Each structure stands twice: as structure tokens, then as C-alpha cells.
Amino acid sequence: MNRLKQAFLEKRPAIGLWQGLATPYTAEICAGAGYDWLMFDGEHSPNTLQTLLAQLQAVAPYPVEAVARPPAGDPVYIKQYLDIGVRSLLVPMVDTAAQAKHIVASTRFPPRGIRGVASATSRAAGFGANAKYLAEAHEDLCVITQIESRGALTEIEAIAAVEGVDALFIGPADLAGSLGHLGNPAHPDVKAAIEDALARIIRAGKPCGIFARDADQARAYFAAGFSFVSVGTDVGLLAHGARDLAARARPKP
Ligand code: 3PY
Ligand code: MG
């Protein structure tokens, strides 16, 4: 069973960690660190299908759900991601219900959708060993669409109502940009928009996720009703840790 969907069903808060380093070695370190899900980023990190595949293989033995974000909600990316074994997709920049429907259709084989058919050669189907894959693949998928523009805010109810959209995820950085506050997701207008979006997504009956900058903000988001929260990034952990260590080790003049 998809671990993120399981957490949603059991109403268990799911903590995630953003993965931007694009290497299997660090992904494996993070996989054993106690997060419920890791998010491998194909939108803003230097990931190729090969680097993504290597990271999926590295984290496979760990009890963590591998979420991956394609560069866009394009059926071509989606079928490639699913074929290498991604079960949970975070799709950026989804502004309308029509887009959300197209994305869900891209994850389903005909007649349910338009996903290109492969199973004998795909890792997702156990390289042909899973005879039920074509019939049952959709049951284990988790499709999450991002709400991160002024336009998407107006469409929340319609997007949340799309069958096959399992959860919605607010992107504070892009949302801040779209609302005229680029680089300032803490601006009161953005905070108000996030609160309103969360309330409407909960009313629509869908789990809502968000990106938090630190542990305090993550806990506050869980307390506010978010179901899944990503806290910080692997890049940030390394960058801050490295800078801090250098600064503290340098002898004072
Ligand atoms: C954003 O903040 O725009 C994201 O996509 C991730 O949080
Ligand atoms: Mg974004």
C-alpha cells in the first residue's frame, strides 16, 4: 500500500523532506532518518530519469514513501516517472480542474486514461513479474496537485473534486510570487491566502500539504490541520551545516 495514502487514511501526520541534491547516496541517508516521505524534485533540481531511478533504488529498502515532482504536469513525464516506479506524484502549477483531470488521466491506462502501456519492461511492474500491474496500478498511486497561483486559489473546490486527485499541496514560494510578494511567503496576504486555501481544501474533504521552512513552522502547520508537511530540504541541511561549521571552526582574529 502507498505509505502516504495510508497515512491519509489513518489521519497520521506525515513529515517529508525535500530532496534536491539528486544523488542516491544522500537520498539513502535521508531515507533512514525518520521521515514518512521524501520528495525527489524534477522541477527545480538537476534530476534526470537516471538520477531519479538511482534514488528510488537507494530508498527502496526503507519504510518511506518516495514522492517525485515532474517538471510539469505533462503525460510524457508522468508515464516515464510511473514506469520507473514512482507511485506518488507531486505535480506543480496545476491551476484548473481541466488540467487536474488531464494529469489524473495521464496516470491511468486505457480505458481509464491515456497512460502509455508498458509492463514487461517497466520497473513499476516488476519487469513483467507483476501480472496484475496493468489492472491494478492506479490503486496504489497518489496524485497530488500543487496550488501555487492566484488562479489556482479560485479553482480549489473544482480541483479538489476531480476523481483521482488524492491530495492538494500549497507551494508558498510560487504562491507568494503570484500574489505580488516574490520572495516573501511570510507576507500577511500570503499567510491569509494559505489559511483560506487550507480551510477550503479541508472542507472539500481532501488532505492538504505544504512546504515548511523549519520544525516550528511544520508543527504549527500540523496543528492548523495540514495532513502532510515537508520540512526543509537536503540542500539546506548541508548548506547551513557546512557554513555554520566553517564559521564556528575558524579562529577569531
Ligand atoms: C513552492 O513553494 O512554490 C513549492 O513548489 C514548494 O513548496
Ligand atoms: Mg512551486
Relevant terms:
253 residues; alpha/beta; TIM Barrel; 8-stranded parallel beta barrel; 8 strands; binds 3-hydroxypyruvic acid; binds magnesium ion
- Gap between N and C termini, in Å? 57 Å
**How many individual helices?**
12
Percent helix among the residues? 40-55%
CATH superfamily: Phosphoenolpyruvate-binding domains
- Count of individual domains: 1
Measured by DSSP, the beta-strand proportion falls in 15-25%
Indicate the CATH topology: TIM Barrel
CATH class: Alpha Beta
Report the radius of gyration as a whole number of Å.
18 Å
Mean pLDDT: 98
- pLDDT under 50 segments (min length 5)? none
User: What is the number of strand segments?
Assistant: 8
Question: What does this entry look like structurally?
Answer:
By secondary structure, the protein is an alpha/beta fold. 43% of the residues lie in helices and 16% in strands. The protein contains 12 helices and 8 strands. It has an 8-stranded parallel beta barrel, surrounded by 7 helices. Strand 3 (65-69), helix 4 (75-83) and strand 4 form a beta-alpha-beta unit. It is globular and about 70 Å long. The mean pLDDT is 98. The structure holds 3-hydroxypyruvic acid and magnesium ion. Residues 92, 146, 148, 171-174, 211 line the site of 3-hydroxypyruvic acid.
What is shown here, in short?
The chain is of the alpha/beta class. The chain contains twelve helices and eight strands. An eight-stranded parallel barrel has the order 1-2-3-4-5-6-7-8, surrounded by seven helices.
